[in-house]
Amino acid sequence: RTPGPSKLVWLSLALSVVFSAGQDTGTGTTTEDIPEGASTLAFVFDVTGSMYDDLVQVIEGASKILETSLSRPQKTLYNFALVPFHDPEIGPITITTDPKKFQYELRELYVQGGGDCPEMSIGAIKIALEISLPGSFIYVFTDARSKDYKLTHEVLQLIQQKQSQVVFVLTGDCDDRTHIGYKVYEEIASTSSGQVFHLDKKQVNEVLKWVEEAVHASKVHLLSTDHFTGASNTWQMPFDPSLKEVTVALSGLAPNIEIKNPQGKLVGNSDGLTELLHIPNSAKVVNIKDPQPGMWSIKTSSEGRHSVRISGLSTIDFRAGFSRKPTLDFKKTSSRPVQGIPTHILLNTTGLSPPAQADRLDLVSIKGEVIKTLPIRNYPKREPFGLWNITEFIPPNEAFFLQVTGYDRDGFPFQRVSSVSFSSIVPDAPKVLMPATSHGYYLQRGVVHCQVESLIPFTLRFSRDGRRLGVDQLFSESDNALWEIAQVTLKDEGYYECIAISSAGTGRARTFLDPPPAITVEGNVTVSPGSSAVLTCHVVSTVSFNLTWLRGGQDARLDPRVHILTNLSLQVSAVTPDHSGWYECIAINEGGVMAERIYLTVQEVPRVSVEPQNQTFTAGGEMRIRCSARGYPPPRLVWTHNDMFIIASSRMTPDGTLVIRNMEKKDGGVYGCLASNLAGTDTITSILTYIESPVVTVALSDILIGIGETTVMACSASGIPQPNIWWYKGGTLTIKETQDVDAGEYICVAVNAAGSSSGKISLDVGAEPKFTREPSDVASDIGSNVTLLCLAQAHPEPQVTWRREDGLPIFNRPHTHGIITQSSGALHINNLWVEDEAVYICEAHNHFGRIQAQARITVTGLVSPVIAMSPTVLSVIEDQQVTLPCVLLAGNPLPERQWLHDYGLVRTQRENVQKDGSLHIERARLEDTGDYTCLAENVIGSSQVKLVQVGHPVELPCVVRGVPQPSLSWTKDGKRYPVSPDGSLALRNVGLADEGTYTCTATNTAGRDEAQVRLLVQVPPTIVESGSPRDVSAIVKQEISLECKVQGVPFPTIQWLVFLGDPNVEVTNRGQVLRIKSVRLGDKARYQCSVMNTAGKQSKDFNLSVYVPPSIKGVILSKSLILECEAGGHPPPSLTWLKDGVPVRDGESVRLLEQGSKIEILSATGSDSGRYVCVATSIETFLSRSLLSFGMVCMPIPYLLEGDTDDVAVTKGGDVTLQCSAEGVPRPAVTWLKDGRPITGQHGAKVLNEGRLLQIKDAKVSDTGRYTCFAVNVAGQADSRHDISVHVPPSIIGQVQLPENVSVVVKNPVALSCEASGIPLPAITWLKDGRPIKATSSVRVLSGEGPEPASNACCSRGCWEVHLYCV
């Protein structure tokens, strides 16, 4: 069952295969996916038959370990490894990130065989270290010592590289703890800061419970010692604030642990000490959480060999690397120093920030003794912070831990120890490497190379035949060297030795320098077919050599035409082209091999031919000319065109054929094929002739000619060769006095050797248009249909178009009434309207000319509106109906009627215009009083008034008739205006200045007439934005005004959408200002200002937010309190009070005052605490509002209102909570100040519950001060102040240095000093024999510090007992 060395080698080589077989491949995790600080939990388990009980407990304990680890916020374990071993096998190995798979593989383990002793445990540990992550936890379960302890050195190296911890759980040791197979367990545990636990089979589960707590992130080491005999040690150790818990583990016989806090008190279970593991004869592990910062004392004792491990949970830690030179790059450091070599250390601390300082580095033995102390220099401006260089030192010859001591940013001392111990690398003798043979070339530079590998400085020397060459060279570490020979000759042949000498020993190696032969050739050889060729290689060698000729890797003499001459040259007789190629000559002597090559070329003059030699081509075609040639070497073919080389290789195929595609005329000419090789040149030509089919071109393919004119038809033709032309058609090509019968199709034909082509000309004979019916003037009533006929004929068919003489468009303009269309030259007007009156011109045209005729359309039947007289004044009773008549006497077309009220259009629903034009008001109101005007209007004009909005255009019509035609003029206030062609007055972009009465005057020789039109200009209402903003805020009981500044003509009416019956609200300045005299919480709403006149309307919304200043309300028990609620409205609202949602009734303890606007709580009790709500309800406006709420708390002690101060005292290290109850609308924001400055996270205080609570934990003296609570909202602020005093228990200063006994000579005075500190300053009392000392003639107490007695005394409250003796 014991594997030999070959078995172990196989195991190491097959590790990767075994590992992959058990690896969880489903995760696809890469190195980049592994989080920083992640580690591996590895179980190395002995599966021999005697380990059955252990396996059952490990399977059960593993589940709890995984459950605890995975439930922590910071995931410590990234993956899990299982390495079973059983002599002589190791495996199968499992490593997975899936905890369920790990548990499954653990449950699948089964024990086999008997209880063999020893076992292959060290090899299994080595595999676990190789597959696990750095900083991992490896637990070994076995009941036998190791068999493969020779692998211990490799395991120790892996531990120092991986910084992992190995813990042994032994339920047996083969009953011999002096055997090296057991001692290596202790060495591995000591190096890795692990431990060896000796247990009974049933105690494994106890260790697993401890493992459940030990596997933790942020684990740091505080102490790691090993002791080979029973001993009791006390360790003084500073605990810094970052230590969240500390674990002390002691393995050994009869273990005992005592821990004292900085005050010297022994810590027990009641002080937070937890016992994680206690096996009376093997191990004890205790833990304390959140230890107080300070200097702690830890005492450990055991009756035999034992180890002590003290660790904690903290963010402050370090890692170290060793280097020969100072560096800030960890990649340039190693995990172990070299023995005897000056070494630098690079430290990287974590968890520290400026001004923290690493003060010193101690090298500590495994017994805990300081070997060497090295100072750490501070570089305050170094980036990144946390890198420290340690001065050069010589590593000790024993294993050591690194211990870093320093101060955190708050000045607390900290101390950390490396997770593993370091042992120096013992350097071996230098290793020298040289090749067995070195080549040197005759009369050329020669070099002898030597490579040396050494961890320490060495001296290098070259020698030959025992004679030193040159001078010795000194190297600090591994390097390369060489010995150089200027010109190699025969005398340089022989053995050369390289020797490296260091303090660890001497290494040497040698090489043999043997110059190989040298070969030169005169060059390549060229011959003609049938001749002989001689190939010669000149060989220079200091010794005998052999020369061999090869061709294609075979002996050249295999060819019967090849012979070797006496001078070793190669002769080839009757050369053929097949003999061409490379020939190689190889020279060999005892110094080596050399080779050279000669190329034999066999040449033959080319012979070339082409096919075809002459041919014709047309454009766009493709032509191929094939060229072939004989010769050797195979000739190269080149084509020329008209003695110019053709460069484009794409036109030539591999077989020498020239391909010309998409041929053009320029491609014609002489093409030459030129074949050439080394033997000569040959050429031959081929002629290509370009031909082109005729192309006929006609100047005009379609000719239109008038009757009697001369016709000329032109036809030209191109082609190669030049074609002949013929015409086909009865008649000649020049036709004089062309007639209708000459019309037709003419054909021009061109013919040459390449083909024929033809062209066509179409001749058409025509004349100018003539009217067959001309349009005539028409007079027709408005609204009727009118048709103007216009017919013409000619060849080609003439086109008939219509236009107006005044240039206005006929078809492409908007028509409000009629439709104008054209068909077959006729113009149709449906529903004739005023603007259709004009002179219309009909025009007919074709290629030979144009003619035109005109006709006038006159619109008749137009009548201006006339309204019958009606009563000028009407009276009506309010809420009665009334009808205002508007009788239309004349008007064509039928006028439209509208009513004006004070010159504004009537548009309300209460005022209805009837079909007969009368205005009906169903229920008359006071605001209906005013002037009403009925306006009748048609296209001719209006009866009285013309309305227009400012900025718009308007036309004032004036229709006039008379003979002769009257002249028109428009005037207003004596100012004349331009008249439009139709007699109207057009005003563009009307302004307010344009309003007034306009007079149209018509005059001719027979007389004059005039008509008046009143133009009213309206301006739509606008709200000027210079008024109040849309979002307005106000504080309760203050006055607020909402301004809605408006413009418009006529001046708009203004309405506010708010109940105006409330006396607290009034509208002023013609409705432009809404004023709320005293703002209430219920006034919070959206207010709308709506403005309107006859030209339009507009509105603006105001959002009013009402704020209530914050208040902190409280009442003392048995005291009275009045809550007040102000509310207004019309009608006045009713007030209701609710307490916690239940109506408040008038009774013995509560009274309702002033119609419910106040309630008085007569004598407050605890049951009166709650939230009181005042509700104001108005039935008229169907509005219910929660106006104000009070939170009232009845307190058993006096409650400080705004501006008062509370004094709070707390002992240092205690907790205190301050409360700030604030109410307001909106809910006020609460902030806290300490001594007038805002409280941040750096003060050590936490603000909770949106500022309503301020909590201070672990109070410090610096927390003393005044704390102010500020409640602020947009309406105001309130504050409450609290004075906190942090008290420090009294302590006597310098008590450690006080002597226990004081001697004094009789009758001589003596003074006893008792200096005490504390907050507040403590009072000092002196006791003698347990009784207070009173001042007497012989004893005085000075400033409360000390008496001058002559007997026993004691200072109380933490004082010393002092014993006096008389001498």
TrEMBL record:
UniProt-listed PROSITE patterns: IG_LIKE
UniProt entry keywords in alphabetical sequence? Disulfide bond, Glycoprotein, Immunoglobulin domain, Secreted, Signal
Gene Ontology BP annotations? homophilic cell adhesion via plasma membrane adhesion molecules; synapse organization
Signal sequence bounds? 1-22
Gene3D superfamilies cross-referenced by the UniProt entry? Immunoglobulins, von Willebrand factor, type A domain
Q: What SMART domains does the record point to?
A: IG, IGc2
Using the UniProt record, give the first listed, main subcellular location. Answer: secreted
Query: Which GO molecular function terms does the record list?
Result: axon guidance receptor activity
Q: Which domain of life is it from?
A: Eukaryota
Q: Which residues form the Ig-like domain?
A: 516-601, 606-685, 694-762, 769-858, 865-946, 951-1014, 1021-1105, 1118-1184, 1198-1285, 1290-1354
Which cellular component appears as one GO term in the record? Answer: neuronal cell body
- InterPro entries reported in the protein's UniProt record: Cell_Adh-Cytoskel_Orgn, GBD_Hemicentin/VWA7, HMCN1-like_VWA, Ig-like_dom, Ig-like_dom_sf, Ig-like_fold, Ig_I-set, Ig_sub
Q: What is this protein called?
A: Ig-like domain-containing protein
The organism named in the record is Sander lucioperca (Pike-perch)
What taxonomic classification does the UniProt entry list for its organism? Eukaryota, Metazoa, Chordata, Craniata, Vertebrata
